[in-house]
Specification:
Elements: E1 4-13, E2 16-25, E3 28-34, E4 37-44, H1 49-59, E5 69-77, E6 80-88, H2 95-98, E7 104-105, E8 133-134, H3 135-147, H4 150-155, E9 159-164, E10 170-176, H5 179-192, E11 201-204, H6 210-219, E12 223-226, H7 232-241, E13 244-250, E14 253-256, E15 263-264
Parallel strand pairs: 3-6, 4-7, 8-15, 11-12, 12-13
Antiparallel strand pairs: 1-2, 3-4, 5-6, 9-10, 9-11, 13-14
Amino acid sequence: MKTISKYSAIKISENLLQNIDEYLVVEESLLININGNPFTLTMRSPGFEKELTIGLLFTEKIIEKNTLYEYFVVEKRNGIITAVNVLIDKIYLKKELLDKRNLLSVSSCGICGKTELNDQLDCQNPIESNLQITATQLLLFFDIMKKNQVLFSNTSGCHAAALMDVEGNLIAIMEDIGRHNAVDKVIGDTIIRGIEKNDLILLVSGRVSYEIVTKSYIAGFPILAAISAPSSLAVDLSADMGITLLGFCRENRVTCYTHNERIII
């Protein structure tokens, strides 16, 4: 499986030209079918297709953690999986759920292809958790994530999502050209491995917007932390959903936007 490609380029610096080789993250499409019918076409980094598929179906509320399913690789091209199919008993499926996605989902946008934005906006049961951490712990967790970002270290062109427990154990880490894909892969990984623990900290390498918060909420993660900034909607939703949202977790500082009772001062 090819995740990195080498390209020739010209580096221009202070009017000097230099021929160089650059290593770039591969971006490919993945067609996800449910019971043989197209559900969504998503752009992503190759690898961990099962984790991405299961995580996406879970955060789209198509399946639950205990839903019985069968996963099949349908098509490959040049060693890269390009289409998969998930068999799910119709008793678990609702037509209105399947209609939520029927368009292209690009790697930079997790809500492309949704027919209704409000489908995900359900804050009736905020997350309740006694989990607490310090800012120092959080920054150490980001150091651990960075050390495990293999694709990023080679290309500087992809995002990462990681799950940590309060003791500093790395539960899961995934990389992808799309922020939301990395989160789906991490969530799918925990479902496939049967990890039931919800009191975990979700770390993301980029900014936090609406779709990242909703995925964290559906998965039950009480603390969501990012290297970059959140959007206004991300902060509003985190407040309603019971999520402790932190941004700018770098350079020995963190900014807490919601539910600071989980941050030990």
